[in-house]
Amino acid sequence: MNILAIESSCDETAAAVVSDGRIVRSSVVASQVEEHRLYGGVVPEIASRRHAEAITPVTRQALREADCSLSDIGAIAVTHAPGLIGALLVGVNFAKGLSLSTGIPLVPTHHLRSHIASNYISGQELKPPFLCLVVSGGHSHIVMVKDYTEMKIIGKTRDDAAGEAFDKAARAMGMPYPGGIELDKVAESGDPGAFKLPRPIVHDAPYDFSFSGLKTAVINLLHNSAQKGETLRKEDVCASYRYAVVDCLVTNFIKAADDLNVDRLVIAGGVSANSLLRKTLSDECRRRGWEFYMPDKKWCGDNAAMVGSQGYYEYLSGNTADTDLNAYATMSIE
Hints:
single chain; alpha/beta; Nucleotidyltransferase, domain 5; 2 domains; five-stranded mixed sheet; 19% strand
């Protein structure tokens, strides 16, 4: 079964054709990064306008590259939550119009569920149940994936998401947007033990995260050194900060797996491309004899192929929508 998938939750306009939830026949992404870099972050109004301009040509290109016509499509999957509301509405309304005009079933798809599904593309043999660490610019969750469409949140951030913490620290060091990617590169040549940074703990919820204090600590480190006229080695600051964030993520994730007696671990989301996170979890799971899955880096960021993968399983579970489908800025993965 071919799924035509639409993704427009933030600043990438994407369309893809995915067969049976696992085989990507085409994946097209129109990125707005260069334009938003001028402002140091995503400007929602600009993002919405660019989605409106790009969504038709991107969808046509996805169908063309998959050598498909709409008559070959069994369902249209679209990200309807969570994300920037204006951006989401562009994709949702486009998909609704396409569904109404063709009679093709419409499948509402959750953005974070789609990130998890990116692993079904990279790991063809992966099946639930498993424990997943979902880490992105706006979310940091530990999720028990009981089945393709049945999930339970085990832990989540109480304030900043890991990706947001990376981006804000990078911006404080003068790195261009999106800063988390640049910080990861610079950290490779630094000393992770050069600076001692805190590891925030949520005492009443051992699997929850808190990155606000850690982000503030590194910003204070930078400001205090500047006031004293000292020059810190950027590579060491990046390496120390990256190590601290990854340590928080891995510690809670491994603890949750131990406590829940789960031996199949998965990561997903934009921050799952972080090189230290990938290596640390891979090493930990290998040492413990656990299975470990991570998406290919090309599927870590926002794309429509992951929407097509999750949309396939949503369709099989009977999750379809009518033309009254709406977009939502927030929505639990459960």
